[in-house]
Write a structure and sequence with these properties.
By secondary structure, the chain is mostly beta strands. It is 9% helix and 46% strand. A hairpin with a 4-residue loop joins strand 20 and strand 21. The radius of gyration is 22 Å and the shape is globular.
Length: 373
């Protein structure tokens, strides 16, 4: 939508609210709402619902000397096979065979230094790091050597999602209602995906979503879930923004949603925790009857792995698989005690716990199974 907007109006002449309203109008007029692709409850794969057959390749376990796994939460593969893992105040680099190389995390407020938690994104030979405390963003090489920092005005609550095909930054921005309107009720929080040039001078809005939060004067509680994943190109951004099973694919170049797909999904009853009951009693929030249908999205080549809310104690988490057209083609359980961190072709990385509650990261090869369609 951003390219069309630039061809019609000038940023110097119109305010942000006007441009937002106009972009919404044009999106509806020029790009009619996409029809939802309906999928059945079961996919056509003959062995759907199996436990995925995996063969361990190697594992990473901290020895307590060079690094210590607190809670590894993000794993990405570099083009040369190197592995990067984000943890609490750590950005760890490993060789392709799982050997520890170095910690790229530098505590501080100077160039290339981090104040708290971080998000990182690999792009070619570069590592882009965002400090989630100060919202600063910079670029290093894969050995952690600082190269440049990007200075953007109003960068607070701007989350880096990746790099667009036009080599722009892809951000998620959020707009919150003023405090005086947060009176203990559900409110929509505008989540807008934007493309921003490297110098910060050119910005275009790509798509806006409206997940709900329960807001009160003393704070907020998320209700709808937001999660996204870039296609491998990366031409598409897959977005889940709600509680019901619906995925939307955003064409980054066109600036519009090009696919919307879902499947018939049985709701998973929510197991209420004590803190939730206390929260509801104190602030009048409604109880959560069912878990959000989708937890996370993972791209595997041209396929999309959907991490669902269905969890079997013996089989682990249920994953659905969709093809590039949004068709539901397969499903399987990952195995008890495994949390998916990354998948690429026939290899996946899972986070697991040892008997002493410490973490390990395991690389698995996905074995070809008889009967797989």
């Amino acid at each position: 939508m951003g390219d069309i907007m630039h061809g019609i109006i000038s940023r110097a002449l119109y305010s942000f609210p006007f441009r937002l309203a106009l972009s919404v109008f044009l999106a509806g007029a020029l790009f009619p709402a996409q029809k939802i692709i309906e999928n059945p409850e079961r996919p056509p794969a003959k062995n759907a619902g199996r436990v995925l057959k995996l063969a361990e390749v190697w594992r990473i376990e901290d020895a307590g000397d060079d690094f210590f796994f607190k809670y590894p939460h993000s794993l990405q593969n570099a083009d040369d096979g190197s592995i990067f893992i984000a943890d609490d105040e750590q950005l760890l680099k490993f060789s392709p065979d799982g050997k520890f190389l170095k910690n790229l995390y530098k505590k501080g407020q100077g160039p290339g230094e981090i104040e708290g938690n971080l998000f990182f994104f690999l792009h070619g030979k570069d590592v882009f790091v965002q400090d989630l405390n100060s919202w600063r963003l910079w670029r290093t090489d894969q050995d952690g050597v600082f190269l440049e920092e990007f200075n953007f005005r109003g960068a607070a609550d701007r989350w880096l999602l990746g790099i667009t095909p036009n080599n722009e930054f892809l951000f998620l921005t959020r707009v919150w209602p003023p405090p005086n309107e947060r009176t203990g009720k559900f409110m929509e929080i505008l989540h807008t995906v934007i493309a921003l040039s490297r110098d910060g001078r050119s910005e275009s809005q790509i798509a806006t979503f409206r997940p709900r939060w329960f807001l009160m004067p003393q704070g907020a509680r998320s209700w709808d879930i937001w999660t996204s994943a870039l296609s491998q190109d990366p031409a598409l951004l897959y977005v889940y923004s709600g509680r019901d099973y619906l995925i939307e694919a955003v064409d980054l170049a066109a600036g519009r949603i090009v696919k919307r797909f879902q499947r018939s999904y049985p709701k998973v009853p929510h197991i209420e925790q004590e803190w939730e009951r206390n929260f509801q009693k104190k602030y009048g929030a409604p109880p959560i009857e069912y878990d959000s249908d989708i937890i996370n999205l993972h791209v595997d080549g041209s396929r999309l792995w959907v991490e669902t809310s269905a969890l079997d104690k013996a089989k682990g988490r249920l994953f659905d698989v969709f093809d590039a057209e949004g068709r539901y083609i397969d499903c399987f359980f990952l195995g008890a005690g495994r949390t998916l961190m990354n998948v690429r072709n026939d290899v996946l990385f899972a986070l697991e716990k040892n008997e002493d509650e410490s973490f390990r990261v395991v690389k698995y090869k996905i074995e070809v199974e008889k009967g797989k369609k």
